[in-house]
Specification:
Number of strands: 13
Largest sheet: 6 strands, parallel
GO molecular function: transferase activity
Pfam families: CoA_transf_3
Keywords: Transferase
Strand order of the largest sheet: 5-2-1-6-7-8
Protein name: CaiB/BaiF CoA transferase family protein
Helix content: 25-40%
Radius of gyration: 25 Å
Shape: elongated
Length: about 400
């Protein structure tokens, strides 16, 4: 195996933290990936037959999804059948030595296997257990199956995506899963801090997909509570804040955010509309919202005959926030991404290199880094089991019985 080149020789922020990941696909594994990027030792448990389904999602190169290469970097893979008594016994032994357990099974699955919180915390009182599920571990919906897209719908996001009167659309990525994962990471770090300050006792972090989405919905609920107002989809505009929209140019689209009072004046001056720049009624956001169609029309008319590059050049000179709509090609070719280490060339265990997203957030004292490439299924099974004191003969016998792979 060829390990990826480290970004830094500084100490890892989470060095010494031991994590067991029982998740699959997106939410749980993304949370564990984030911890791993900052130095946590992550042991990922996968089913021996096929492994994590993400290995085969979207575009495949040399038999493995390129998505897998970023989602599972810095992890160890143990192919272990948790449906067997032997497999669950090994999992318990791993959890007994861990700081964190990440799982995103449907609620009740681990309990049915004798691996619920009561059992695991008795085994390891310092354990921090991150549980990500569709609806949480409690409540009337807890047993319903829930994926990220359902969380996006129930959390209020899907109602707002798209054009007015048209079908709600997804934002193009599994944002519900990722938001849940990031909330889970926050919860883990909070629980670890509390554990350190309060005698070493662990706890459960219960993250529901829809709640993670709902938590970022800004003033959606207060507006309904105070005014009975139900926010509706608005396409590319930002309702109640003007001007902020997408405008068609001769060769594409540009986003313009001219909603600050002084920025608005500079924007209008730059597009030759001094009449709007000097209109006292438009000096505040309230006045601009009342005439948003007129303002959007003025910006749109100015952008229409110009190229995206030409529009951005003029608005940059006027210090107006504006940008093009990036594709993957635009990102890959942008020097700012590369200057900030946000595009890494990562070796794979399949023998090729692939460009992957860099590490966020950027800690200047203890930056994250790629220590190893994404594992093949069960690459680390023997080494991890040997670390538990299991002999080569025992490992061979379990492999023969299909408990491990």
């Amino acid at each position: 195996m060829t390990a990826a080149t480290p970004l830094s020789v500084a100490p890892d922020a989470l060095a010494g933290l031991r994590v067991v990941e029982m998740g699959q696909l997106i939410a749980g594994p993304f949370a564990a990936k984030t911890l791993a990027d900052f130095g946590a030792e992550v042991v990922k448990i996968e089913p021996p037959k096929g492994g994590d389904p993400l290995r085969n999602w979207r575009l495949i190169k040399e038999g493995t999804s390129v998505w897998w290469q970023v989602q599972s970097r810095n992890k160890k893979s143990v192919a272990l059948d948790l449906r067997t008594d032997e497999g669950r016994d090994i999992a318990r032994r791993l959890v007994a030595e861990a700081d964190v357990l990440v799982e995103n099974f449907r609620p009740g699955t681990l309990e049915a296997w004798g691996m619920g919180w009561d059992e695991l915390s008795a085994l390891n009182p310092k354990l921090v257990m991150l549980r990500i599920s569709g609806y949480g571990q409690t409540g009337p919906y807890r047993d319903k199956p829930g994926f990220g897209l359902i969380g996006e719908a129930m959390g209020g996001l899907r109602h707002l995506t798209g054009e007015p009167g048209r079908v709600p659309v997804r934002c193009g990525i599994s944002i519900g899963d990722t938001l849940a994962a990031l909330h889970g990471v926050i919860g883990v770090l909070l629980a670890l801090h509390h554990r350190q300050a309060n005698g070493g006792k662990g706890q459960v972090i219960d993250v529901a997909l829809h709640e993670a989405v709902f938590n970022v919905m800004e003033s959606l609920l207060p507006e309904y509570s105070a005014f009975g107002a139900v926010r509706e989809p608005a396409g590319s505009a930002l309702p109640g804040i003007a001007p902020s929209n997408a405008y068609r140019c001769a060769d594409g689209w540009v986003l313009v955010a001219g909603n600050g009072d002084s920025i608005f004046k500079r924007l209008m001056t730059a597009i030759g509309r001094a009449d709007l720049a000097d209109d006292p009624a438009l000096g505040s956001n309230t006045g601009r919202v009342a005439r948003v169609d007129e303002i959007d029309g003025a910006i749109g008319d100015w952008c229409a005959p110009r190229t995206v590059a030409g529009v951005l050049e003029v608005l940059a000179a006027a210090e107006v926030p504006a940008g093009k709509v990036y594709t993957a090609k635009d990102i890959a070719e942008d020097p700012h991404y590369r200057a900030r280490g946000m595009i890494l060339r990562q070796p794979t265990r399949d023998g090729y290199e692939v460009e992957v997203p860099g590490i966020v957030p950027k800690l200047l004292g203890t930056p994250g880094r790629v220590r190893s490439s994404a594992p093949g299924l069960g690459d680390d099974t023997d080494a991890v089991l040997a670390g538990l004191g299991i002999t080569p003969a025992q490992i061979a016998a379990m492999r023969e019985r299909g408990v491990i792979a």
